[in-house]
Amino acid sequence: MWLKDSLYDKMINYIKERKLGEKLVLAAPIIIPADRKVVNHLELLVQQGYTRLYDGSSFIQIAELTPPKDFNGLYLLIDRLKTSDKEDELQRLGDSTDLAFYEGRGECVLFFPDSSDRKVFNNRFELDGLTFDEPTIHFFNFNNPVGACKKCEGFGKVIGIDEELVIPDKSKSVYDDGVAAWRGEKMSEWKNQVIYNADKVNFPIHKPIHDLSEEQYSQLWQGTKYFSGLNEFFSHIESQTYKIQYRVMLSRYRGRTKCPECNGSRLRKDASYVLVGGKPLTDLLSATIDECAKFFHEIELTKTENQIAKRILLEVRTRLEYLQKVGLGYLTLDRPSSTLSGGESQRVNLATNLGSSLVGSMYILDEPSIGLHPRDTENLIVVLRKLQALGNTVIVVEHDEDIMRESDHIIDMGPLAGTLGGEVVFEGGNKALQRAKNSLTADYLTGRQEIVVPSKRRSWKDRVTVLGARQFNLKNVTVSFPLRALTAVTGVSGSGKSTLVSEVLYPALKRQLGEYTEKNGDFDGIEGDLNTIKQVEYIDQNPIGKSSRSNPVTYVKAYDDIRALFSSHKLSKSRGYKPSHFSFNVVGGRCETCEGEGDVTISMQFMADVKLKCDICDGNKFKDEVLEIKYQEKSISDILNLTIEDAVKFFTEQKNDTTVNRLLKKLIPLQDVGLGYVN
After folding, report:
1. For the chain, which terminal residue's Cβ has fewer other Cβ atoms within 10 angstroms, N or C?
2. Which residue, among 553, 517, 563, 519, has the nearest Cα to 536 in the 3D structure?
3. Tens digits of per-residue pLDDT, 547-577?
4. What's the CATH number where 59 sits?
């Protein structure tokens, strides 16, 4: 119904405020297309059924009109009626208004002859000199060309002047050379200009840059009428890039920086003009989930708006509620998924499944407690119980003690790993598990076995200190990391552990070593015994390989030695086989039907694809003639099918070989970290 449109609501409310029974003239501006003559346009209006124009006080017959040079002050008469609060009269006004907006290209005029009043309404999207497209669902999607910022194409960052490179140490003031680009005899002229004129705008030149107010920081970049800012400085540098020294200097401060067009929101600029409950989408995206949930629960809408948004609000509130229930209320909606910890990613997926509200389904979760603090594990258990209460079956592969104790039924696999496992050593409830005799799980849950706490701790003296870390949830923290010691960074999920280590400490150390890294988080600086650090390695939960053929032995480069062993075989040499013939990644010895995968993918059109064992190589990945080459009675396929533990045992018996010794040095660390059961 037309009354659902908020613009019509405004018109109706305006009319209802007028005196009932007052005469009303609804008209539209006369707009003549540039390629059409005035006479022809008037004839077309008559053909469409229009008969009169209105000049604000009297009516003019179109048929009797001598075409004027312009129609300024003349309007096309759409309808004449009286103000009323009756539904049928309001319905008529709505229909006529639709027609008026069409003829007036988005504008209509209400005249009140009795009082000489008039009121202009328009449904065009115009503001601040901008003309907007009519919003659609794609208008607010930065992954769609329609909604993405035109400058950064929806990425939120562009190649420009990187503030972190220009001001690497924000604990310094402008006076103390906090602006790296203004150091040196020539460039310090720009700094001196700020120092000599700072008192005219009360700019604090001795104050640490990170303590500057938002207005003062803007002055440093935008400048004032008394001194030039960094933006003007770099504009000057860019104008001098025909000189090599200026090109080098400019490249020194370039990097991926926040898009100036969308301010990092990734959405087109005009999307921020569309408000819901007084807030644009960009503000909601930068808010936390808790803040958004509060906003949507407290939002005040008119009766008509509530009718329109009822179902949408239910969906939004429900999904935000599930994110809160899994303990993610502290995350902002625009937080990049690549910056989430493993536990956070797990819980986002869990919230997605909760939102589907399926009943009679089976949920299988593989170690959902990874990365969770004990407090958050309790919240996770509540969520899992809610899934079960809906009538679903929940199966959890888990090592966490709290989740095991909460389970209704436990299936314990063992007794050990790899070839020593594969048996069900216990099945039953928690009470029965306490009495299980052949279960390592029961031994540790009951305390019969335990991990012994070291009686003596390692002492340490050297340290590295991060100063003023402020990325994401971090609130200007300064913390020291001891060197040559095992340090645990702990806390509840979302407290800033991963941010402190992966977004601040790691990239800062990489830059100290002169290595390239992504832009680090916001912090003041790093100090300590940095010269004692020769290399930094970051190990996270990301997959170790992007190819479906990747496996542990290829990742640790042990496969090179295995292929060398097989290529050195007498039969390999007589057939001219090189190490590449024993690789499933290149053409040569691999099975070309499955291309070294061991299975083939069958497309099922509108259904999920199906993988079947390759019927040519029988899943062995190699050609038959390559499988004829044997090392100690085992083919290359047999070797690859060994667990790491079995492989170490197998090759240990051949330790007199140099290649084998090199291979064992790569395999044994995998066994040492508990991966001996992996093939």
Report:
1. N
2. 517
3. 667 778 888 888 889 999 899 888 999 999 9
4. 3.30.190.20
